[in-house]
Amino acid sequence: MFSRRQFLGTSLAAPLLSASPRFRFRSDFWINLHHFVRAEARRRMLGATRALPSLEDSVLETYERHARASLIFDKELVALKDALVEGSRPSQALQRAADVYRDQIWPSQDRENRFWIERVEPSVARDSPRVMKQLGSAYGAKWLKGAILVDVCPDTGPTLAYTTGRPRGTAGHVVIDPGRCAELDVAFEIVFHEASHTVDDQIVAALNGVAARVGRKAPEDLWHAIIFHTAGFAASRARPRPDFVPYARRFNIHPQFWRALDDHWQPWLEGKISRGEALEGLVRAAYAGLRGTPLLRLEGKEYIVQDGDVLVIRHG
Ligand SMILES: [Zn+2]
């Protein structure tokens, strides 16, 4: 059986493992279970090997539609997660899954999460006042009041981490995979990348404003390429070593915008031109990099939507 005391004991009332002014890191049972059940439902749907075969099928069935949905863009799935952050009673399905998960998965997962926090948190706490200031002025954005909650948890979908909304009492909620962010440099950069997402609406608005002034539409994803570039640059400054390569450059993310970013955004980061000039140059130059980039791909009916996909449904 499940008592209120039990879930409070592992949710909001759980002692935070660490606290820095800007970030609160934690390893939370229900958030981890929620993501685990979704991932397990997805494995079942795809016929992949399950991580916890003793988990009841009826639990996984209730998560089937969440398994198809995007962790970032599906409002219902985000609301479900945010309710857990805010301390609401977990669903019946999660409560039914809790015992077997607590028994077989959680002890080692919690250990991995806490180990990650112990390694990453000190450098984030040390550098965050400076890096957050740099990022805020680079974007021309105002950080939201309060701390960004960072839940350490695997099963974040196709991305290493994701950030959504603003559950009560937070300035944004990041979920980050300790396995795929095991490398300290990657973890450090991704924490600040995800923090940038808490103000991405301001970045998009600034970009669209400049684009409208020059009579163009800002290319799709350019705002995200700006975040990758800026957080990568700030991380490389904070962790000065010759072999530091920002994540996007290492893993070939948004390469169509690299040239434009290097020519127009980087000079702003180095204080050589104004942000207005940088944004205008960037919008104009970004189109040059887009030629030859595939925008649409055809998939069959049985295709399972990936996080980040934008769908165009063909009728008839
Ligand atoms: Zn991102």
Mind explaining what this structure looks like?
- This protein is α/β, with parallel strands linked by helices and 316 residues long.
- The protein folds into two domains: 4-176, no CATH class; 199-290, no CATH class.
- It has 13 helices and five strands.
- It has helices at residues 4-10, 29-46, 57-62, 64-68, 75-85, 92-104, 106-139, 184-197, 200-213, 222-238, 247-250, 258-269, 275-286, and strands at 18-19, 23-26, 148-152, 161-164, 173-176.
- Strand 4 (161-164) and strand 5 (173-176) form a beta hairpin.
- Helix 2 (29-46) packs across helix 6 (92-104).
- The longest helix is centred in the middle third of the chain and has 34 residues, at 106-139.
- Zinc ion is lined by residues 193, 197, 224, 227.
Quantity of strands, as a count = 5
What quaternary form is this?
single chain
Order of helices and strands: HEEHHHHHHEEEHHHHHH
Report the structural category.
Answer: alpha/beta
In helices, the fraction of residues equals 40-55%
State Rg. Answer: 21 Å
Number of domains: 2
Provide the residue-averaged pLDDT.
87
Short description:
By secondary structure, this protein is of the alpha/beta class. It has helices at residues 4-10, 29-46, 57-62, 64-68, 75-85, 92-104, 106-139, 184-197, 200-213, 222-238, 247-250, 258-269, 275-286; strands spanning 18-19, 23-26, 148-152, 161-164, 173-176.
